[in-house]
């Protein structure tokens, strides 16, 4: 892989990381997953439409856990402690509330706190442990594509990606139709290039490195140093123009 590309990713990770311990991936069983899940702005579903009002590239949705991590019991101050941790930094990774009641308080923090209660406290994580799982991105190479939520677009004959998750576990695809068909993803919204990925190449193409470069760095350029690099082999280089309404790669 191109050396400048490796340097770019290393610098991105250095700037995004916080000093903390990470839950071991050994806690993930074969039939479960841990993943950092993102919404992609779109007009096809309700959550995507809400995200579209807040970002052109991505909205953080949650850190997904579906298995017990420890025997820790809920503490009476868990809610207050998690809000204290998340309020100063939620906008750093576009973790905006999707609830109307949070609009007046800057899109924080009842949505984020309830997300912690459901996916963190419930499975034995303290407020600081769940916070770390979101804001410490660990190694960019250790996170795999493990979750896609898609909607079938019969006009384009493609599965449109509305949610995407990276972490540990088997790839699970929810929704859509005929997952052997192409998947469409459009960082930046309808005025930007649309990437079309063949169904049998989706996991190898939509890597976390791809997401960081094409979504996170575009939305948060201050997080990413200004390196010049050659595209990696696993970064899509072909795009179709949505305005031309073509159904294949150019």
Kindly list the characteristics that best describe this protein.
single chain, 250 residues, alpha/beta, 7 helices
- Rounded to an integer, what's the Rg over CA atoms? 18 Å
**Backbone shape:** globular
Number of domains: 2
Task: Tell me the total number of β-strands.
Answer: 7
Please identify the structural class as seen in this structure.
alpha/beta
The whole-number mean of residue pLDDT values reads 79
Textual characterization of the structure:
With 250 residues, the chain is an alpha/beta fold. It folds into two domains: 32-135, no CATH class; 144-244, no CATH class. The protein has helices at residues 3-16, 46-52, 78-86, 110-119, 127-135, 202-205, 208-219, and strands spanning 34-39, 59-65, 144-153, 158-168, 172-175, 183-185, 195-197. Strands 1, 2, 3, 4, 5, 6 and 7 form a seven-stranded mixed beta sheet that branches. Helix 3 crosses helix 4.
């Amino acid at each position: 892989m191109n050396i400048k590309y490796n340097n770019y990713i290393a610098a991105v990770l250095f700037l995004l990381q916080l000093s903390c311990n990470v839950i071991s991936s050994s806690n993930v069983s074969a039939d479960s997953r841990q993943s950092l899940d993102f919404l992609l702005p779109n007009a096809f579903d309700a959550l995507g439409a809400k995200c579209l009002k807040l970002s052109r590239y991505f909205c953080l949705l949650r850190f997904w856990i579906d298995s017990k991590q420890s025997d820790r019991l809920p503490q009476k101050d868990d809610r207050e402690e998690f809000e204290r941790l998340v309020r100063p930094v939620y906008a750093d990774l576009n973790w905006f509330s999707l609830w109307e009641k949070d609009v007046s308080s800057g899109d924080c923090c009842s949505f984020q706190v309830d997300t912690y209660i459901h996916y963190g406290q419930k499975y034995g994580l303290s407020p600081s442990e769940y916070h770390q799982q979101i804001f410490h991105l660990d190694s960019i190479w250790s996170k795999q594509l493990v979750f896609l939520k898609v909607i079938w677009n019969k006009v384009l004959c493609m599965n449109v990606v509305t949610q995407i998750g990276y972490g540990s576990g088997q790839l699970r695809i929810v929704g859509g139709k005929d997952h052997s068909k192409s998947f469409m993803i459009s960082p930046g919204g309808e005025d930007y290039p649309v990437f079309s990925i063949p169904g049998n190449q989706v996991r190898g193409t939509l890597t976390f490195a791809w997401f960081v470069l094409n979504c996170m760095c575009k939305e948060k350029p201050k997080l990413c140093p200004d390196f010049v690099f050659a595209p990696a082999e696993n970064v899509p280089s072909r795009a179709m123009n949505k305005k031309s309404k073509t159904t294949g790669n150019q």
